[in-house]
Amino acid sequence: MRQPRLEIEYCTQCRWLLRAAWTAQEMLTTFQAELGEVALVPGTGGVFDVRLDDETIWSRKDQGGHPELVELKRMVRDRIAPGRSLGHSDRARP
Amino acid sequence: MRQPRLEIEYCTQCRWLLRAAWTAQEMLTTFQAELGEVALVPGTGGVFDVRLDDETIWSRKDQGGHPELVELKRMVRDRIAPGRSLGHSDRARP
């Protein structure tokens, strides 16, 4: 197991594998040098949770929906690559 | 960390993220109930290694190329779901 480790637990009954795998690929593209690994974890019961090492940074049940990708990237950035710009998606909306 | 854990270490310089992520999704589709997690691990230097828990079941450098998906599935099946049929891809070629 490598750290920092991003873990994405998704509901298989909801068929969220593709969503989880897409999220994983986006994170590994953006944080290629910073992330140790991204793990896809099959779950059930409507789960879509994202954990960075021991911290839950997104839980669909608590937050009431799926994360915006840019929001998730900001949360990961703030923890493992502070000061790093995320490019155009990082600018405040007008 | 969940077990059984399948780990795919891929070379970022070779741009094998898509290949690794595709392999991960295939494995999670076929072994949805059996796999604890699939981890994508960014690496360098031409690596494409697949590990199941502590065992390396594929190493591009040792085997001289990338794995055939059906072959990889057979190896995983034999270890975590023996006796399970893989369907049409599991039949011997004529």
TrEMBL record, chains A, B:
SUPFAM superfamilies per record: Thioredoxin-like
Pfam families, per database record: Rdx
Top-rank taxon, per record: Bacteria
Gene3D superfamilies, alphabetized: Glutaredoxin
Keyword Cytoplasm recorded: no
Keyword entries, A-Z: Redox-active center
InterPro entries: Selenoprotein_Rdx-typ, Thioredoxin-like_sf
The protein's name: SelT/SelW/SelH family protein
Source species: Phytoactinopolyspora halotolerans
